[in-house]
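Field reference: sequence -> structure
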Amino acid sequence: MQREYIKRYVFLLVGLLIMAFGVGFSIKGDLGTSPISSVPYAVSLISTVTVGSATIIMHCVFIALQILILRKNYQPIQLLQLPVALLFGFMTDFAVYVLSPLSHTSYFMQWVFCVIGIILVAIGVSIEVVANVVTLAGEGLVLAICKVLPIKFGNMKVCFDVSLVVTAILIGFFFRGELLGVREGTIAAAIFVGMLSKKICKWLQILQKG
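Structure field:
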């Protein structure tokens, strides 16, 4: 049993690292990040805070909101989201640093980076789901809301992602008078990450059983 848990946590770490590089590639593509990364990236562009640090702060806010929403029904095991958030934030900054030498010279190359980012994020999310250890704070918040409101997870997830993108847009226009971190790539990520992750999850589950 202990060996199985260790295997799951290692699997989760691999998923987080892959996801972090997906975020890194989407940043390098400069066509907009995925909805969950749009706010941290916008914050990083208007301040000295790195995108990884902004991600950690955002996830801490999500954890606090879960506690406020669920109150006595909040399960302490979900506090594992905090170390996961820290690791993901550090990994994101690491990925951005490693990919810093890369640059694009055309709109086509921007899309290449963007597509790589989408695929990597989808793979990372799939591994996180299959690892079945702990969810990231964003998904945890959506689940918490669904527990107190009669809303399906899928519908709430869409509303949650839209609210993050709107927040990023407001940050950009308020501080710079322009869009920051939200472009056509954000729409592509919103559409395809979920679709790809569902298929990848099925493949990973088949490989686990095999």
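Note: DSSP finds eight helices and no strands in the chain.
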